Amino acid sequence: MSIPFIQEDDVERGVATRVSPLVRRIVADNPSVFTYHGTGTFIVGEGDVAVIDAGPALAGHVEDILDATRGETVTHQFITHTHSDHSPAARLLREATGAEIWAYGPAPGGDDGATPVDESEDRAFAPDHLLCHGDRIDGPGWTIEAVHTPGHASNHMCYALDEEMTLFSGDHVMGWSTSVVSPPDGDMSAYLDSLEHVLERGDAILRPTHGAAITDPAAFVSALIDHRRMRDRQIIACLNDGIGTIAAMVETLYATTDRRLFPAARRSVLAHLIRLVDQGRVAADGTPDERTRYRLNTAA
């Protein structure tokens, strides 16, 4: 099954656009090959409102949020994860409004030595409240449920808006592109498990932080799962053909892809290989990393 990607026409950044009766979106001015048109910050409710993914530390973007909520009170901030295009503006918004921050947790600690790809960690992120999977937060006219979805990041949290059967899916599910899964914090097995959980939820609509809404979540998420399983098979085929390094696999599997995305592709292939090694289907000549040589595990 091919992924039914959703392209979004160029958006007007910095303007609060109503996307549903309870939700407005402001797109930050940080477009890139990894953020699409930019980070979409969501405002939920009227009067006493919640903000989801305040975004990058751009003073102009924070001012746009403040302008959009003038005459209202920002009571809660929810952060999907601590990559620098999602969480840093939360501190600035807290300073301006006093709105406390809710999240799964801070950035994973320490320098893990991973190859920088699309986003840096917001090491200064410090939530006021830690959320667990299934926690529920109420506001006037809205109810948010925390849905832990590790994979893209270990601290990735989606947020369900009960009143509209909507899941704010952060970077876990995006309509315009697949998500980067970059070890060691990114985990392909966890990512697939989380996709299965989202599929089982039965939400009516997904609203990613980047790009347009996904209005047929079941078909889209099923296609994402199929795509990752297909990538497993393609990697096994590469190994069967004697292609044993990640660099060579990426040249083969991503031959028609923008080469600017090759660093991210190498991280995702590594995530697949770690999963396959853990399953016993693949053997590694050393600790799995981008420089390791891989082969089929004939003893399996």
Question: Which features would summarize this protein structure in a list?
Answer:
300 residues, Arc Repressor Mutant, subunit A, Metallo-beta-lactamase, Chain A, 2 domains, 27% helix, 5-stranded mixed β-sheet, 6 helices, 14 strands, alpha/beta
Structural features, described:
- The chain is α/β, with parallel strands linked by helices and 300 residues long.
- The chain has helices at residues 59-68, 89-97, 188-201, 217-240, 246-253, 262-278, and strands at 17-20, 23-27, 40-44, 48-52, 73-78, 100-103, 129-130, 136-139, 142-148, 157-161, 166-170, 205-208, 282-284, 294-296.
- The chain has two domains: 17-224, 4-Layer Sandwich (Metallo-beta-lactamase, Chain A), CATH 3.60.15.10; 227-296, Orthogonal Bundle (Arc Repressor Mutant, subunit A).
- Helices cover 27% and strands 21% of the residues.
- The strands form three sheets. A seven-stranded mixed β-sheet has the order 1-2-3-4-5-6-7, covered by helices on one side. Strands 8-9-10-11-12 form a five-stranded mixed β-sheet, with no helix packed on it. Strands 13-14 form a two-stranded antiparallel ribbon.
- Strand 4, helix 1 (59-68) and strand 5 form a beta-alpha-beta unit.
- The longest helix is centred in the last third of the chain and has 24 residues, at 217-240.
